[in-house]
Design brief:
The protein is an all-alpha fold. It contains four helices and no strands.
């Protein structure tokens, strides 16, 4: 255990459940992304920003997978467009990662 770990006692568990329920409700009602809810809640609970960001992305991934599966199973997903968009997302991600790597190499950071 380190200082930034969450200690799950009754108070922390109740806080997590309430924030998750109300945050999920608000996000669903207003069409917000899950990261808008997860990241501030995790930061408020005392997690470091790097852990909060990584955990938020991890949690949002499951929502995206579930949504994609539901649209696909209901026949409401344009598969060709999804694959086209996915291809360019991968190209952009690789280009961005390459740019960051080059910047880190040149700046020494």
């Amino acid at each position: 255990m380190v200082d930034s770990d969450i200690r799950f006692n009754k108070k922390q568990t109740t806080k997590i459940i309430c924030l998750g329920f109300f945050g999920g409700f608000i996000a669903g009602a207003f069409g917000l992304g899950g990261g808008v809810v997860f990241n501030p809640v995790l930061l408020a609970m005392g997690l470091p920003p790097t852990v909060s960001a990584a955990t938020g992305l991890y949690l949002v991934t499951y929502g995206k997978i579930a949504t994609t599966l539901i649209y696909f199973l209901n026949g409401q997903m344009n598969v060709f467009y999804s694959l086209w968009l996915g291809l360019w997302s991968v190209v952009g991600g690789v280009a961005g990662a390459g740019g960051i790597w080059l910047y880190m190499k040149l700046s020494g950071r």
